[in-house]
Design brief:
3 helices, Immunoglobulin-like, Glycosyl hydrolase, 5-stranded antiparallel beta sheet, WD40/YVTN_repeat-like_dom_sf, 40% strand, Methylamine Dehydrogenase, Chain H
Length: 828
């Protein structure tokens, strides 16, 4: 396990950052916001086109509704690594029922204390979750606020689309508005009136916006009123409500601005507000609290359920340092600073959720920072809690039915302690990893690698779901394995930190000798192997580097291929993709993050820029053709703003002319491209994986059981003809695409099946359009796992007993003779 130990000086790290899961000293590191997903989609502007993503989602849904759903994706892991969790809630009436909200992976529910989880939010368009709230009076009533409110975590591309309400424990959801409030920090329900709900809105992160503050509904979400507004740059990040009096609410405002090249995370309008009349009027609390704008950044607050006159507030200052912890014993009329000198200060406390009070004891408080610290004497002294957990804490919940059970969520996943945080166990079944890049060993398809946000470079050597292990640290990016030697592995972390192992991952060493430290490297620096010679590698900074000795040393083979350094404190002007022709190793194509595409046809001696007629957007992928040495493809992120251009282009004359092969694609980012041996094209996009059998004239959704999540990368494993999809928030999926899958899929369009009743809670009737000799039925859950199979012969009508299945949405895959079809069914 990779460990980073405490150094004498502050270790400078980045947005995702290294982590420790040992009981060694916790690493101290400085974290800078690198919202690369946003940067890709906003370049060359400073914002994302409003409404375009929603339109792309509608296009996706229409495509799915107009075709038989085949084939389907199979989940390929990991479940045991995890990803960022933003909220945890425990059902008030069932000690074994938890709800978990993920930063970009939706909502999961367990009814057996975490032994099994079911994704319950996958049919919604946005899977970024800010907060979840459960009714204390009706166990089936659940509210969800979308849009992660944490700023600068690398995953912020899209805001949420408001609040959702479920009256059946999350089986179905209804959007209840507030679609323009950006991200949601907190949802609170009146403990005595389920129809009165308060929502804390942070607003859009990257622009000024008046849709911020506290919103209230008194009729269950049918109507909303903005009852607290501070400014167009100040949202509300946290709230707490009196446990028995829903008129008393506390809200913390946060003055926060973020631009692609700048940020401000504090100021005068970061405050604590209180209402005693249900939100009609608000009072700013100041007595004993910080007053200087430089002292006031993100503020977290919680109320004691055992003594509601006691509250605690944790202040980060405007820079992000720990400013202090404050306590009131009179409902906020006056506050006193408690000891915060023992809290670990890492300089980016705008990233953490903050303070939680044990519901049974007003003096027991937990502080969520880089790690978990606890006080049992009201903040007079602090000690470390939840040892051996991943860093960067965001969520904590107490089980009201099990004293001593505390649940924790952080950038590494979900943890459960049954002894008040003295020790804990990590959940190993939540598939919410946020992948950047993906790779499968050419020689051994069971060895699967991925680079992930805040969870480093990881792999499985068995192809399993629960045995992935982290092999290097930092944020993980493009891994590669020598196709001729399975023991030689390359792994990247942020800004081009390249490591190599020659002993199957037992140890790694740095291999950047010859690469100038003065060169610019992207957060997601690319590397590539020469398909004809595994000893030859390429590395993209703002110049292209080449190694002919398996990365022992490097030599620059190009000038600066970008448009030069850009203003601001974030790195622009770098190579982002490299492709070496499998037909001619002298032909190399590169793309840059500032819209350039270059080609060399003599191994780097001469370079030609070929992108003058292409869109000025962030290049995501260049791909040299496998059949024609003069052809290659380019894909782009970002959005069109009135231009008549696309996101996928092809040239057949080495870039002299271009053909827009975006076809009927909607206006949305394309993140990667692959081509199989049958000539089919596959795209990783923000709305799933798309495929074309006719060089982009027509595009279709490939399978429909991927959750509604961004697909950041695809990898085609040639020997097994398996396509892998790496998602940003729901781990990875795979599909067997052998036998020209798009042609087979087209042949199945005339095969029809009727399912009824749907939804069902017991029997499901299946009626085929003809009698078939051999029928096999697979019932597949939302993770692509087959949970039930049935075989039939010489039959046309079938009845299946579904009563033993958990409440969820399933796929019914029916294979009848040479035909295949997949349908959705809901079990309630």
């Amino acid at each position: 396990m990779f460990r980073v130990f405490l150094l004498t000086f502050l270790l400078i790290s980045f947005a995702g950052c290294n982590f420790s899961e040992s009981n060694e000293e916790t690493p101290i590191r400085k974290k800078l916001p690198k919202d690369i997903l946003f940067m890709q989609r906003a370049f060359p502007l400073d914002h994302i086109k409003q409404g375009a993503y929603e339109e792309a989602k509608l296009w996706r849904n229409q495509k799915i509704s107009n075709k038989n759903l085949n084939p389907s994706w199979e989940f390929s892991g990991p479940e045991n690594i995890g990803g960022r969790i933003t909220d945890i809630e425990v059902a008030p009436d069932n000690q074994d029922t938890y709800y978990v909200g993920a930063a970009s992976g939706g909502i999961f529910k367990t009814t057996d204390a975490g032994d099994n989880w079911i994704p319950i939010f996958d049919d919604q368009p946005f899977l970024s979750i800010g907060d979840i709230e459960l009714s204390q009076n009706n166990p089936e009533l659940v509210w969800a606020g979308t849009g992660e409110p944490n700023a600068g975590g690398g995953s912020l591309a899209y805001d949420g689309d408001g609040v959702y309400k479920s009256t059946d424990g999350g089986l179905s959801w209804e959007n209840k508005g507030l679609n323009e409030v950006g991200s949601i920090g907190k949802v609170k329900m009146d403990p005595n009136n389920d129809n009165r709900v308060y929502v804390a809105a942070m607003g859009a992160l990257f622009r000024k916006d008046t849709n911020r503050g506290v919103y209230r509904t008194t009729n269950g979400g049918e109507d909303w009123e903005q009852v607290l507004f501070v400014s167009d740059s100040t949202g509300v990040i946290d709230m707490t409500i009196h446990p028995t009096n829903g008129d008393i609410v506390y809200a913390t405002s946060w003055e926060r601005t973020r631009r692609p090249n700048d940020r401000q995370y504090g100021g005068e309008t970061s405050r604590i507000y209180k209402t005693t009349d249900g939100g009609d009027n608000w009072t700013i609390l100041t007595n004993g609290l910080p007053v200087s704008p430089s002292q006031k950044g993100r503020i977290s607050i919680d109320i004691s359920k055992s003594n509601p006159n006691v509250l605690y507030a944790m202040y980060a200052d405007a820079v992000g340092n720990v400013q202090g912890v404050y306590k009131t014993i009179n409902g906020g009329d006056s506050w006193t600073a408690v000891n915060s000198n023992q809290l670990i200060n890492v300089g980016f406390h705008w990233w953490f959720e903050g303070i939680f009070v044990d519901p049974s004891d007003e003096d027991i408080i937990y502080y969520l920072g880089l790690n978990v610290q606890k006080s049992t004497n009201g903040g007079t002294s602090w000690f470390n809690s939840f040892s051996n957990v991943h860093v960067d804490q965001h969520a904590l919940a107490f089980n009201p039915s099990l004293p001593g059970q505390v649940l924790l969520g952080n950038d590494g996943g979900f943890y459960k302690s049954n002894n008040d945080g003295v020790s804990s166990v990590k959940d190993l079944t939540l598939p919410i990893t946020q992948f950047y890049r993906f790779h499968v060993d050419f020689q051994n398809p069971n060895k699967i690698y991925g680079g992930a946000q805040d969870n480093s470079t990881m792999r499985t050597t068995t192809g399993g779901l629960n045995d992935w292990a982290i092999i290097t640290g930092g944020d993980g990016f493009q891994p590669l394995v020598d196709p001729t030697n399975t023991n030689v592995i390359y792994a990247l972390s942020q800004y081009g930190n390249l490591m190599k192992s020659v002993n199957n991952g037992t140890s790694f060493s740095g291999v950047t000798s010859g690469i100038s430290g003065a060169d610019r490297k992207n957060w997601d620096t690319p590397i590539a192997l020469d398909p004809a010679d595994s000893q030859t590698l390429y590395y993209g900074a703002n110049r292209l580097y080449k190694s002919v000795n398996a990365a022992v040393s490097w030599t620059s083979i190009s000038p600066d291929l970008s448009n030069g350094p850009h203003q601001g404190n974030l790195v622009y002007g770098t190579i982002i993709s490299i492709s070496v022709s499998p037909l001619d190793s002298q032909k190399i194509v590169v793309g840059t993050d500032d819209g350039n595409v270059w080609i060399t046809q003599n191994g780097g001696t001469e370079w030609t820029k070929v992108s003058d007629d292409l869109p000025n957007r962030w290049v995501t992928k260049v791909l040299t053709d496998r059949e024609d040495v003069d052809s290659f493809y380019v894909t782009f992120s970002g959005y069109r703003y009135g231009e008549n251009n696309g996101h996928v282009y092809k040239t057949s004359d080495n870039g002299a002319t271009w053909t827009n092969i975006s076809g009927d694609l909607p206006d949305m980012p394309v993140n990667s491209i692959a081509k199989d041996i049958y000539g089919n094209l596959f795209l990783a996009t923000d709305i799933g994986v798309l495929a074309s059998a006719d060089e982009g004239v027509n595009w279709d959704i490939l399978g429909d059981n991927l959750p509604s999540v961004v697909v950041t990368d695809i990898h085609l494993h040639e020997p097994t003809e398996t396509l892998y999809a790496a998602t940003y928030g729901r781990s990875s999926y795979k599909m067997n695409i052998s036998g020209d899958i798009l042609r087979v899929q087209s042949q199945n369009q005339d095969f029809n099946v009727k399912l009824f009743p749907n939804p069902t809670k017991d029997n499901l009737n299946i009626k085929l359009d003809n009698r078939f000799q051999n029928i096999k039925i697979f019932i597949v859950d939302n993770l692509g796992r087959t949970v039930k199979t049935k075989n039939f012969k010489n039959i046309q009508s079938i009845s299946l007993d579904m009563s033993a299945l958990s409440k969820a949405t399933y796929l019914i895959k029916i294979v009848a003779d040479q035909n295949e079809i997949t349908k959705k069914v809901i079990v309630y």
